[in-house]
Amino acid sequence: MVRASQVNGDMALTFVGFLSPTTWVLIITTFVLFAIYSIWPYTVFKKMGVPGPMPIPCFGNLLQYRKGRGQFDEKCHKRYGKIWGIYEGRYPMLMVTDPEIVKTVLVKEFYTTFSNRRMAPIIKYYTNVLVEHLRKRESQTLQVKKVFGSYSMDVITSAAFSTEVDSLNNENDPFIHNVNKLMKFSFFSPIFLLIFLFPVSMPVLRFFNIFMFPSSVLHFFNSNLQRMKKARMKGKHSDRVDFLQMMINFQISETVKNEQGTVIPYKSLTDNEIQAQAMIFILAGTETTANTLSYVAYNLAVHPDIQRKLQAEIDEAFPKKSELTYEGVMTLQYLDMVTSETLRMFPVAVRVNRVCKRSTELGGLHVPRGISINVPLFAMHRDPSIWPEPEEFRPERFTKEAKEDRNPYTYLPFGAGPRNCIGMRFALMHIKMGLVALMQEFNIRTTPETEIPLEIGQAALLAPKNPIKLKFERREQHVKFAPKDSVKSE
Ligand code: HEM
Asked: Is 282 a pocket residue for ligand 1 (Cβ < 6 Å)?
């Protein structure tokens, strides 16, 4: 009888002998180099004296995102305080929550914002489509993200690409089809992971025309852009002012007025840049807005008293369901409080970040060049020392007085400083106009299928683990607004 260990030993020797010594040296060298490559960056925070969770080779702390980045940040914030360091793959990321440091980090560069008042008619049109759609599904249990996803996509695609789409009623529209394909982009796609773990692979992928987005989608948007440009050159264009039209105008003009009103030469955008901007617009705007609307609807359904107060404010501002106006909607105070409190509880962006361009001192800490500095919004928005009982939905946290009493850098759903969200005002108008139209027509109610409390999932953008299910019941009577009890401070 031969023992199993002896057989295994013989097999191992045969295997070793099977490869030449040079091959073995190459394999071992590759292995050692890979091991060094995988763990090399993990000394950064140790050298800086910054605490943080232990990384594992190659992945850093990525695998600890299993329950979502927001919850992971919240845990680290409780454990390490106002500054800690983590590694996303090989990238060191310094996390800061101290409002003064946050201010220094975010308020440095310059960036423009996207004006939006002129988009109000587009939004108004789609709020009618939304209400009409829900009328037909009155009292049915609905996954609200689907409904708001279509509403957001219609508004943003229409604003970005000059095109009228109706995804609520026409799923086969080529635009909807391509935008949906664009949205299916996943952080776990093999190409994204390859670029993430081995950034050096990027030029090679580019050489072989391999992109993160499907080439059919890129081709579709490019042909659309060319069609619009041709129409524009022939002087054919609608009076609608949309994002794409604005960029094409810039491209054609090649001059721009500076802040003093002087005309200066302008390095016009290339077609690729215009196309990328329009796509970013859709990617950055659709999910964020749809998720936020879903969270507001959820909060209102779970808190019928707050919903009634909001309806009362809206009924008073727009008696007998009168036409919405941009100014009218944007001045509703309680609506603003409800939206703000929802964005505090559910900041869809979870984190914002900046890269440190040169070595600098932050709150007594030496931060080397190249480090990514992150502001964990979810963790900050749920810090009980700033927001008592943070898991409670309390619009009163956003009265004028309560806001004045707080450091503004403790609440940043749209980021801050010159590089904050360029779609912020557009998004708020989009969300608020949608809500006003809904509140005029419906009561939003929970159903036995509504998950309470809501469990957060682990997607890159803050999204619920399971779909939010609610129903929309037609309102029978309007309620009277009592301003005195609607805006109390905490
Ligand atoms: C509730 C909705 C939204 C939320 C919560 C949100 C949040 C954010 C946040 C936190 C950032 C990073 C800001 C920073 O780094 O300081 C951002 C960036 C950005 N957002 Fe939004 N966003 C929303 C809707 C939109 C919409 C509707 C658009 C476009 C129509 C948009 C376009 C962008 C763009 C292009 C950027 C990148 C700006 C840059 O890199 O300079 N967002 N957004």
From this structure: no
Choice between 386 and 159, residue whose per-residue pLDDT is larger: 386
Q: How far is the CA of 162 from the centre of ligand 1 (A)?
A: 20
> Count of residues for the chain?
490
- On the question of pLDDT at 483 being above 60, the answer is no
Q: Whose CA is nearest to atom 3 of ligand 1?
A: 288
Question: What's the predicted TM-score (pTM) here?
Answer: 0.82
Which residue owns the Cα nearest ligand 1 atom 11?
421
421 a known binding residue?
Answer: yes
In this predicted structure, what is the pLDDT of residue 450? 97
* Nearest by Cα to 81 from 65, 97, 61: 97
Which pLDDT band, with edges at 50, 70 and 90, does 391 fall under? very high
Report the chain's terminal Cα–Cα distance, integer Å.
Answer: 82
CATH no. for 106-349+382-486: 1.10.630.10
Weakest-pLDDT range from 16-25, 217-226, 372-381, 479-488: 479-488
Distances (CA, A) of 123 to 126, 154, 223, 435: 5, 9, 26, 12
Ligand 1 pocket, mutate which of 123, 421, 429, 462 (most atoms under 8 A from CB): 421
Q: Which helix (H) or strand (E) holds 287?
A: helix 271-302
